[in-house]
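hey team, just a heads up i'm posting the complex here instead of the shared drive bc the drive is being weird again. everything in one block, sequence lines first with there labels, then the predicted structure for the whole assembly after. its two chains so it's a bit long, scroll down
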Amino acid sequence: MIRMNTKTYGLCLGLLLLGAAAIAAPTNKHTISKSTSTKNKKTALVSKPATKAKTKRKQGGPEQATTIAAAHFVQNAQYSLTGNNQGLVTLSSLTTGAVVRTFQMDAGVQVREVFLLDSGATVGASQKDHTVFWNVATGNQLGRVAERVYGFNHAQTECFTQNPTNETINLFGYPNLNKIGTIASTRSFYGPEAFLFSPDDHYLSVQTNSLRPESDGDYPNGVRYAMHSSWSVDMFDLQTFQANAAFSDYGIMGMGTFSADSRFYNLTGVPIISLFLADPVGFDQGPPNIFQFDLTTGLLTKLP
Amino acid sequence: MLLRKRSVSRHEASRVLVLLLMATFMAGTTVGNAKLPPKPTIVVPVTVGGKGYGVIAIQVNPDGSITGGFQAGGGSSLSGMEQQLGQQHLNWLVVGSITGGPSLIDGQGSRISPPYIDPPDGGYGQIGLSPPSWADQIPWYWDEYQRPPLITDPELTKWTKDGSGRLWYGDRPVNDPGVKLGFDIFLISDFGDHTYQPIGGVHIGGTIGGGNTLDPGTIVLTPNPPFTPGDRNLVGGWGPSKPVPGYPPIKPPYTIHKPQPKTGVTPNGLP
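-- predicted structure starts here --
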C-alpha cells in the first residue's frame, strides 16, 4: 500500500484523465405512473384545522432528513409520542410528563413510525403494513391506510408510502387518506431509509436501501446481517409525479439538504459515483466536497 | 464549475499510466491543522491484450459503504467496448469470504461455506432475525432478471450507463463487530453463451466495526486478485437445480470463455 503526497496525486490525476471517459448527458429513462383519480372524492375522515403545527422542524438552518431508525419517536411543543415493540402508542405531555392517552395497534408488533398531526389533535402510527389515525380528544380511530406511511409533507396535506412489489412510492392525501398517485423510481427501489421534503413540499428525496424494509426484530437499525446490499437516493417531483432522472444519473448515494427556497439540493461529503469514476484519484480525497444540485435545471455544481 | 458534461481526452492510457495507477491510494489530507480520515481508494486499469479499456475505481466511505465501478476509457460506451471484445455484456463477479459471525444461509436454506459467490444462488436466507434477500440465479453481482411480480428493469440495467460508459458497483455489508470480510470483485465479460472472462478486479478486505459496517480504518485494497481454480469452480458449479416457476430457464453452468475461430470475432487477447 502506498501513501501518496499531494504532488503525486496531481500527477496521477493528470495521467488518469488521459484515460478517463467523459460523463455523458443523463438519459431520460424513467417511468411515470399517476393515479387517474387525483381528486379526492371521499368525505374527509378528519376535520382539517385552520393552522398546521409543524413537528420536529429545526430553526436557523437547513432541515435534516428524517431517518427511519428514529421514526418511532416524535414531539412538538406540547406532546411527545412514542411507539414500542408491543404495538402500543403512547402520547405524553411534555409539561407534566403524564401519559395523555395510549393507542393500541396490533399487539406484539413493532410500531415503526408515529405522527403528531393537526397541532396535536390527531395521532398517527404505522406498523409494517398499515397505518392508523386517531382523534386525541376522543381516542376514536379516524382512518386507516393499508400501507406503512413513512412521512408527511410540511403542510400535512400529503403522506407517502412505498410499494414493495413494483418499486414505486404512493402518495396519499391527508386528511382524506385518498390515494393521489404513484411515482416510479429510476433505480432499484427497496425500503426507505431516510427522507426529506423540500420546504415548499414540491420535492421529496428518499434514500432507499435493500437492508429495508426490515423485520420487526431488525427494527430500527435495519437488517442486521446482509452481505449484499444496494441503495440509492431518488428525487421525486411531487407536482409532476416524476422521479428526477438527471439526479439519479449522477449516482448520488447519500442524503442532502434543501435550500430555503427549495431550488437547490446541497450535498456535503456524499459519494457521487459518476463524478468519482470520472476522476477517482482527485475527486474525493480532500476536504468533503460540497455540491449543489439545481432542481430546476438538473445541473450539479461544485461549490468552492 | 458545471459538471453535467465534461470534455475528456480520448487518448488511451500509456504503459506508464497503467503502472502508476496499479497503486492503491490511501492517504489523509491536511486541512488547516486538521487531519481528515483517509478514504481508502483504489484505481485499477482494465487492459485486455495490452489495450486499455478503462479503469475500475472503488472507494470505501466513512459509513462503511463501498462505491465505485468501471469507467470505460477514451470516451467509449460500454456497448462499443463490448463489440470490440466480442462480448454481450459486463457484470461483476464477487467472491466473498467471512471469518466469524453467524453462518450464512443461501436462498434455498443451505449453509454457505466460504468462499462463496455474493449474492448466492437465489439470494440469502434468513440469518438470525434478518429476513431473506432475493437474488437471481445467475452468478453475477447485479441481477439480470427480476423476481416476480416485479416487472421493471433488473438491477443490471439500472446500474449500467451505456452512454457514459459506466457500470456501477455498490455494497454496504453489515454484520457483527469483529467479523472479518473479504471480497474479490471481478469485472466479468459475459459472452452471452454461458461463457465468461474476468478482465480485471479489486480485492477488499476489512473488519466490521462498532457501527456493524466495515471500519474504513481496517480496509486493505489490492488490485487484480488472482482468479483461482476455486473461483472458477464456484461459478462453473452453478447448476440448474432450482427452477423458478414462470421464469426464464435456468442457465447451465458457466465456463471460462474460449474464443471460437468461426465466430469471426476474436476477443483481443483473451485466452
